[in-house]
Amino acid sequence: MRTLRLALSCAAAALALAGCAAINDLARSAFVKPTLAYEKVEVQALDFDGATLAIDCRLTNPNPFGLTLARVQYWLQIEGRIVTRGEVAGGLRLPASGTAPVRFTARLPWAEVPRLAELTRRGGRVPYAIGGQVAVDTPVGVLELPVEHAGAVDLPALPTFRIAAVGVRLASFTDLKVDVALVVHNPNPFPLPEGSFRYALAADGEVVATSDLEGLSAVPAGGEARVEVPVRISLAGAGRAALALRSGSAAVRLTGEATIGSLHYPIDAGR
User: Fold this and answer.
1) Which member of 10, 69, 173, 194 has the lowest number of beta carbons within 10 Å of its beta carbon?
2) Residue 163 pLDDT exceeds 90
């Protein structure tokens, strides 16, 4: 009797396993692979250090049973070089015979862009490729669905610089103090952060001073800020240019380069 019961138990287990296998085989044969379609990329954030891009896709499940998004892995590359990678945890439930939106974001840092200074000077666009793998849990295992898109994003607009005023006074018997008020205009819809710049000051075409200056003021979106540039020059060393400055007849020009975030902008302002 014990042997008979053992045999019956083994037979029942075998039938159960066979039944499960049959069900799994049936599920596999009836399963239709989900599809992933690209919809759009939008610039979610833009500043002087980079751009944050959001890619929107739509995941479609043609099966009469629900599925689960396992994970999303993504990358962003510039000129064939990957500069950003990331992964988003899964858990999104994909309804039976339905669709679900999938969004992931990637950061494009300006510091990673080749020939950035040249692009900045001519107000260029930065080309990129963004893509990823969307993994879905299914009855036939985890399936990875690829998506990719190539596009370009505008660099922030160049701020403009102008000289609002020039003040000249004797600092000593041998030196002149020249105070240049520089106005910075930010045409962007986001604030311009604090920065620095290096400059050369010329009077009547003759360079009388060069220096680096920290503390380039932050400028609100679409607004302006005033920066005081103090310059001390030698009366003897600057010669005729110093005399022209002192008399107020000199044409004054400030040239150089401003560093704002990861970007470098040319300065050329005259009065």
Assistant:
1) 173
2) yes
